[in-house]
Specification:
By secondary structure, this protein is α/β, with parallel strands linked by helices. Helices cover 42% and strands 17% of the residues.
């Protein structure tokens, strides 16, 4: 018996092969996410979300087989979420991920601001970041603040030590009499009792506030002062060393995060750790170089003596104790957080000019 081979038109065969080539066995799933920040990318914490966190997520997903890919939309500098409204914007789904500035959202994150109520502490950015990160794990009320606000915490940031940028020189406490100093959120407590008046503001407003006379200077950290060009309007830099301060972190919408596949969740958590580590290293390393750049641009930098620094600390009211008592009155473990944080500083060998636990 003779079998005759059935012929297939060439065009049909080519089409069939093309169809097979265009349909991979495991199609890649694209996940669209929007990241936002109230500050512009000139500030390191925003810059490194773009340069570290996002690439780290992408790298980990590719290493896991490339089944998932993130398509990022970036909205920096308050274009989508204004400073101080980031947590609500993420919780409401306006953005999927953002830098949440806990310093400007104290009612929602009361315990996270413990460093701002214990000034004149450590200038070690890494130490402060780690100390608060450990507290968020060991004190349920701290960690729960993120989930209660519809967020998943991915990593935190501490700012380098605060000093004073002003229009006038400061050598002693009396030089502050009658002056107006811009101070964000709880740092206004560092001014009360000194003879100066605290003026509300943020890095987005300090330059114009000082230039226009709304304030005579600002309490701010070196990397932020350089980015905001404060030395141009406040050329007297007094190194007071209020200490490094925990100021917030990167968070993602909880509902969105919970729906992500486990390997994508893992990539985000690991990328958050990488962002926090890179930020701590670069923030700390940049301080000396940026201070020198300001000197080269005409800034006059001096250090407040230890005696005057102690006088400043002693002039303040019971800042930490008032904060802890207020937290206790609202059913929050203020005493435990204060004791643990001061204990972490002491364990690391940080000398405090005043015992804030009393």
């Amino acid at each position: 018996m003779t079998f005759r081979r059935r012929s297939i038109p060439l065009a049909a065969a080519v089409a069939a092969l093309g169809s097979l080539a265009a349909a991979p066995v495991n199609a890649q799933q694209v996940i669209k996410l929007t990241a936002a920040a109230g500050h512009p990318p000139v500030f390191l914490w925003v810059k490194l979300v773009d340069e570290v966190l996002m690439p780290e997520v992408d790298k980990r997903l590719a290493a896991a087989g490339g089944k998932y890919r993130i398509e990022w939309t970036k909205a920096w500098g308050g274009t989508l979420l204004k400073l101080g409204s980031e947590s609500k914007g993420v919780a409401d789904g306006v953005a999927d991920l953002a830098i949440v500035s806990t310093i400007f959202e104290a009612p929602k994150f009361p315990l996270q601001n413990v460093s701002y109520f214990t000034p004149f502490g450590s200038d070690d950015v890494g130490l402060v970041s780690r100390s608060v990160a450990e507290l968020q794990q060991s004190v349920p009320a701290m960690g729960d603040a993120w989930t209660k606000n519809g967020l998943v915490y991915l990593g935190g940031m501490a700012l380098d030590s605060y000093h004073v940028w002003s229009k006038f020189p400061i050598t002693k406490l009396e030089d502050l009499q009658g002056k107006k100093l811009s101070a964000p959120g709880p740092s206004a407590n560092w001014v009360k009792g000194t003879g100066a008046v605290a003026v509300a503001g943020s890095l987005n407003t300090y330059y114009e506030d000082i230039k226009s006379g709304v304030s005579d200077g600002a309490l701010v950290f070196t990397t932020g002062a350089w980015a905001a060009k404060l030395h141009e309007v406040a050329p007297y830099v007094t190194k007071v060393n209020f200490g490094s301060m925990f100021a917030g972190g990167v968070a993602i919408n909880k509902g969105r995060f919970d729906r992500l596949p486990p390997e994508v969740q893992k990539a985000f958590r690991e990328a958050g750790d990488a962002w926090m580590e890179a930020y701590s290293k670069q923030q700390g390393a940049a301080v000396t170089a940026l201070m020198q750049k300001m000197v080269d641009s005409g800034a006059k930098v001096t250090s407040l003596s230890e005696a005057e620094r102690k006088r400043w600390a002693d002039s303040l009211g019971p800042v930490a104790r008032t904060w802890a008592n207020d937290a206790q009155g609202r059913g929050l473990p203020g005493d435990a957080v204060l004791k643990a944080y001061v204990g972490a500083l002491a364990k690391a060998g940080t000398p405090l000019p005043r015992d804030w636990s009393k």
